[in-house]
Amino acid sequence: MRRLLPALACFALLVAPQASAFIYYSEQNMPLNGQDKNGQPVGLAVELLRLMWREMGEPEQPIHFLPWARGWYLLTQQQEAVLFTTAHTKERDPHFLWVCPISHSRVSLVGRKKDAPKVASTEDLAKLQIGVMQADVGEQLLLNRGVSPSNMMSVERMEQVVRQLIMARTDLVAGNEVMLRHQARELGFPNEDFVTVAILEEQDNCFAFNLAADKQQIAHLQQALDKVREGDEYKQLMARYQQFSILPETNPPIPRLE
Fold first, then answer.
1. Complete DSSP assignment for the chain
2. pLDDT digits (tens, 9 = 90+) for 136-193
3. Which of 84, 94, 149, 251 has its CA 20 to 30 A from that of 51?
């Protein structure tokens, strides 16, 4: 019996589920990620992550939904942290490790169609109030382009950003345009009520990891994503979410703020 106990202990270690190398953080910001009315994780990025876990033979992991600024802080402080969906910009690139892409998007300045100001350069923003989400790519790109924080009204959630614009508390809002317009529709306002006045950047949306994260595990996730993207389920997934990603055509072309 004494000989059997060590053997049983070793067997238990072999069959016990392995702890995840990562802690997954996200936010309520559909259609990419969020929770439904029952608190269950939903959205394009969530479904894609589940396909990646299945490809790797791993069980589903908990996803913790937080305000974006809180998730961003934890990403910088916790070795195991993963934050999605995160815009992969050149300014952010050296500060994190990445698994890409979840999707591709553009970060824009959006206004009310009836009274949107014309914007041709960053100098035109000096007299405007711009709604942004704390630590979001829209806020960071504006700061990187020299826009003063005094010209920004920063809040925790994208829904609040859009409400500010609807209530005319801001002249423009900055952020992922698909998410901005989706939030507006959820609040009962159609695409036709808004206009894109300028584009800040276009980039991939990704899973971001702390620089001290396990690089081998990250490589496995990237391989799983690459494999999933080759399959039919991925094509079906993207087709289901395509309606949420179609941006209105613009003529003349939208100016780009470098």
1. -TTHHHHHHHHHHHHSPPPPS-EEEE-SBTTTBEE-TTS-EESHHHHHHHHHHHHHT-----EEE--HHHHHHHHHH-TTEEEEEEE--TTTGGGSEEEEEEEEEEEEEEEETTTPPP-SSGGGGTT--EEEETT-HHHHHHHHTT--GGGEEEES-HHHHHHHHHTTS-SEEEEEHHHHHHHHHHTT--GGGEEEEEEEEEEEEEEEE-TTS-HHHHHHHHHHHHHHTTSHHHHHHHHHHGGGTPPPP-SSPPPB--
2. 999 999 999 999 999 999 999 999 999 999 999 999 999 999 999 999 999 999 999 9
3. 94
Q: Can you give the pLDDT at residue 24? A: 98
Rounded Cα distance, 112 and 178, in Å:
16
